[in-house]
Amino acid sequence: MKRFLAVFILALTVLPRAEADGEKKESRVKLKFGGRIDAQVFTDTYESKSANSGIFYYFPLAPEYTDGGYDMNSENTLRFGVASSRFHLTATADDVLGGQAGGYVETDFMGVNGNLGVLRLRHMYVNLKWKRSSLLIGQTNNLSVPEAGFPNTVSFGCGTPINPLSRIPQIRFSHKLGGWGELSAALGMYAGSEGESQAYGLVPDLAVRFTIGDDQTALSLSGSVKSIRPRNMTADSMRTTERMTAFTASVFGVHTFGGGHQLTAFCMWGQDLSTLNMLGGYGPLLRDVESGTRDYGYVPTQALAVWVGFETKIMKGWQPGIFTGWIKNLGTSQPIDLTQASIPDQGIDWYYRLSPRIWYHYKQLSFGLEYMYSLASWGRSFNAYYRPVERYANSQNHRLTLLARFKF
Asked: 3-class DSSP state for residue 333?
């Protein structure tokens, strides 16, 4: 990672000179460097699941009571962060295979495995564009992510875990259908434990998205399927064949009107949404476990997520907006063994968020202020269908974020 940082810094010092020399030689390759510097301070009233020293917020934790009945998670915190700052480099070249070839690299300082301040790869891909088609190869947003209308939140994460957020290596092909729509399909691979299970299964994630509309009004329909092999061997070294297959379906709409008002809405149903930074997972089929089947089957959990966003411009430079959404665990279609389940954040049943915000922009400088209200329901106990039969009292958190940003 230190070597990567050194190479990246060296590139930043050499690129402007290379760009100038390239212009003199009329090079076919054009380079453009940019990025943003973020500095934010935020406060919370309740202990919550978060990452990157609190910058990436998810939801309030379940209550944790002392013998005297005091909730130990009811604590105020104040933090400061700059790690969401990022840099990007774009390279383009014309007249390549009958179209335009390009490359894009983006990195930030959110780190890996809790090492905040270390460069982290966000995007890195090659893109070939023709008149009506394009071919992307590399790492970028999952096709299930509503790229046309990311919630413009002040807090990092764009509404996660209600809004999907995932960047994966993929091969994506897109084709424009005249001037009224676009069809995209992608084959992708995940990272982490499910990435290893996907590698054992030899089957990439398949995602398809169909978009109809224009720059003012658009509607997108997306779907995906993944099939993983959670284990390649049983405990007694017997090779496994059972797979876990999961599907997703979503719809996203954006409408811009009145000279700057924008309304966005998103709805997703899916199985095992954990790879999208949402609620979900899977577990062994209970009847197989109880019967002693060594190569047991798997059942994914299901979840439903809905959010709505609105943003407008009230005067020069001022841009208020609001985001609100809800995600709900729907359990499983068949009983599972919860003691062996692979469900990140096991126990949360639903989560609601309301976050009004206001941005002020002046040239390259922006200031953002956002209030986020979070409400979560955690199950104290669950049945075999992963549905709560007893709940804790709802957990709620109030987060206030103030951010300064400089773009270049």
From this structure: coil
Distance CA 125, CA 45 (A): 40
User: What per-residue string of b and e applies to 199-228 under the rule 16 or more CB within 10 Å gives b?
Assistant: ebbebbbebebebebeeeebbbebbbebbb
Reported residue count of the chain is 408
Q: Name residue, tokens 């105020």.
A: 76
**Residue 206 phi, psi dihedral angles, 5° rounding:** -115, 125
Phi, psi of 312 (to 5 degrees): -150, 180
Residues 297 and 332: beta-carbon distance below 8 Å? no
Domain boundaries, the chain: 41-81+132-407
**Cα–Cα distance list, 60 to 70, 285, 354 (Å):** 16, 30, 13
Cα–Cα distance between 1 and 218 in angstroms, integer?
Answer: 41
Single-letter code of the amino acid located at 408:
F
Where is 222: in which H helix or E strand?
Answer: strand 217-228
CATH of range 41-81+132-407; options 2.40.50, 2.40.160, 3.90.320, 1.20.930 = 2.40.160
pLDDT one-digit tens code per residue, 47-80: 999 999 999 999 999 999 998 889 999 999 999 9
- Does the global pTM surpass 0.70? yes
C-alpha 184/C-alpha 11 separation (Å) is 33
Q: Supply the mean pLDDT for the chain.
A: 91
Q: How far is CA 139 from CA 82, 125, 181, 216, 339, in A?
A: 24, 6, 24, 28, 34
Sign of CA dihedral 264, 110, 59, 45: negative
Distance CA 299, CA 244 (A): 7
Reported as a pLDDT band with limits 50, 70 and 90, residue 234 is: confident
